[in-house]
Predict the 3D structure of the following.
Amino acid sequence: MRIRPWQRAKQDLSEELNSHLRMAIAGRIANGENPTQARAAALRELGNVPLIKDVTREQLGWVWLENMLYDLRHALQQLRRSPAFTATALLTLALGIGANLGVFQLLYAIVLADLPVPQPTEVVRVHAARSPFDQSWTISSPAYERLRAATPDTPLMATAYANDATFQLPNHSPVQVACEPVSDNYFSGLGVVPAAGRLFVQADGRIGQDEWPAVLRYEFARNTFGSAAHAVGQHILRNKKEFLVVGVAHRRFLGDVTGRAPDIWFPLALQTTGAFAIPWDSLGPGHDVSLDKPWYNQPTIFWLFLTARIAPERRAAVLAHWDQVFRTDRELMTEATADQATKTQLLSVKTTFAPLSENGMRKRFMSPLTLLMALSASIFLVGCLNLASLQLARLDARSHELGIRMALGASRYRLIRQIFLEDGLVVAIGSICAYACGRVASGILIRWVSNRNAVFTLDLHPNLPLAALGVGLMLVSLISFSIIPALLFIRSSVAQTAGSSARIAGSDKTARQRLRSNVLLSTQVGLSLLLSTMSACFSATLVHWETVDVGMDREHVLTVRPDFHQPKYTDYPELLPALYSQIQERLQALPGVRSAAVEMCGGIHCGWITALYVQGSSNLTDGQVHGQEDHVGLGFFSTLGIPFLRGRDFSSSDTKGGQPVAIVNRAYARQLFGDADPIGHLVGYGPAPADHKFMIIGEVADARVNGAQREEPPVVYMNINQNPAPVNSIRVRAVGDPRALSESVRRALSDIDPTLTVDEILPLSAELNGDLGTETLLARLAGIYAGLTLLLVSIGFYGVMSSRTRRRKREFGIRLALGATRGHVQALILSQTGLILLAGVLPGAVISILALRTASHLLYGSVNANALAIIVASVVLALAGTVATLIPARRAAYADPLETLRDE
Amino acid sequence: MLVLRALSLEANHGYGIAQIIRSRSGEAFAVETGSLYPALHRLERQKWVKSEWKLTESKQRAKYYQLTASGRKQLVTDHERWLELVRAIGAVMGAEVEA
């Protein structure tokens, strides 16, 4: 065992004093004294040995450390001696601080964090013009090149959005990855440095390479190839096209869109290969658009988002210059509308900048996360209050011991230090647990908050604000849980309570103590009421959105996502209708299947924006003609459970050469025709001279195809057999639970075509509920918080009431002896609980109403309806408080009065 | 200062130092152990003395203290200050006071 320096010093000193003593005795013996006397005299001369040791050791400066270690050991002993208290305190701190850290990490990553690049505020989005139909800030590739060339000293980066794609990786099963095509100056413009290899250079943007360069995200590279360095030089495959991993981006760089972290970045030029599905917008059908040809030289395909790095003082000049250069494109983009007023308005739009922080994620999560932060703070507060009252009770119980120790000469300073050390230890251990808790919590929260379709990838590295928050909460908990109770306790004077007089301490003091614990308890009740109310309202909101009528049979439909984007399908579209009908027949023959149909859309949130002009009515505004479009196969409406209002469904007689037909929903019909019958009208994609070839043959009811929380959009459905194209989903309506069909559907599809891959099979309800990230997060977290505070409040009531009934045992004994019934005694104790509850519930209700008002945009239903939740929560709280009080109350009431009095 | 002076001739242990001071002062100063050891350890921390374990003449282990260079310098300064003080007090007191 290693001897610590202070231990060595201690041994040395003992030995030194011993040798002194021996020499002194030897000296006296030499002078002729007898050994016994010599020893006694020498000892007398030496004096108080431990005192000498103490004083001498103080010269060495180790004493404080030694004392500290002693105190630490003492503290650990004390904590071990009261495991219930220690466990409660640790758990409260771990959950209270952990919840705050978890939520804050999310809040920080989504709302507060800057892009991890140098001078992040210089990086801005460039909004040149909204695309005609999707209204997204996208422009064409030629326009981008012109803008970039116009200001060579301002890095202007372009990115496109690409759908997730399946990749073959070496020694790996195929994986679905998120990818993002970017311009060659993307990384250099942002200032991202590689973690390994290199990032894109100008040559990477060249068209027609055999081997395309790719840059990987750090975590993706590590998970797939073991490390960033290993990933460089690896080859990955997509549809037989080979990609070479040239580099891995810096580990903190997760892309420039919060929450959506691409696994792989490619040069924009990759669009020419057609290997990726990239969303686009255009001037609409009838304009010069060839989607099959490369997009880089087509000015009417809008698909590029712009980002620039530009110092604030240069912004105005650059914008003016860009507006000049962009003028021709702006004029071109107005061709999408026939509405003269809209045209003029579009021409007057100016290019603007928007900070990266102005994004949808931030808008969506700002207030839910702030609210959750507030709720987390409340639960932390409840925890602190609970610990404070526990601590006061504990100090009270220890007052006798502390008093004796002081009487024996322990210094007040040392005692206080020991108490603080004990609490400091609890807080420190609690904080470590809290940090672990927070890490786990933020992981779980991200999963809850994510859309089903896009699991957010966020940077959860520990950061300075998080650490500051952690330390801050630690200090607050230390103050409330240790310092304030200790001070209160010391003020009520340790010495006074030391003797046996403690039991009959002044009634004044006990009254003050009682008031203090009452206030603590009712504050907890109030906060608990707030949390319970919020939890009830959020749960009700979640249930509402999970069950609201979406105009489709949400419980019985299965969505299957096949991958038809292979040359064998895309090159021979004329063969597709036969394949679709084969699939439909095969699936409908499966037991448990009511019907099946193909659909161009891959699910909800999909229908693309279109414009329909009616033959014979020339004065329709943009607001009237714009709607969503989808191409569907036979039996689509009966499969999804969308009822027909008028006319007929598509039939096998609607073929490619015949009369093109369309079905509109109620919302579109109302926009175009008012309340008139739409059947038989001819519509087309453009105004007057354009061809109006589609005949409306049916009108169906509205459905919330953009998600349960969105309004029913106007939709026009075209017959996919008249314009054959690869579909993105097959819908199957089941008799019972659609999940049960997954395997048989998968097998049936592979029987028809073994090469057809199925990306995903999931029920429509899961698809719809996938949007409810915010609601799920709020409901679940608030529910957990409410449960926790309820538990804490119950523990609080139990603790306070049992210590009180113990103190009043004698009084109850006398009361019972004098003829009070057990009911009386119980009522006496319960009435105290009742008063505390009342004192907590009233202010709690007021805070809850205020909170409901501020959070009303996150809740479904009126404030008044939600206020009902307050009453329910109050009842639950009252029940919990009463039950927690009943246990000590019964104990007091059923105690034998004679026993009690004899004990005295 | 007394301790440093006692060590100026040779290294010695705590008991020896106490004996030297006592005998030189003609039994006037009996150095208390309770003051001697804290003083020794303080001097050691100030690096004016250093210590090592040695065997005494009677073959016993004892901790010997020895003056360091800075300790010797300190002794010279202290000694000068002391002489000055004695001179100053002597000048004030002058001849014998008449009773």
Notes: Residues 182 and 454 of chain A are 20 Å apart (CA to CA). The longest strand of chain A covers residues 241-249. The radius of gyration of chain A is 38 Å. Chain A has four domains: 5-61, 120-360, 364-546+773-903, 565-755.
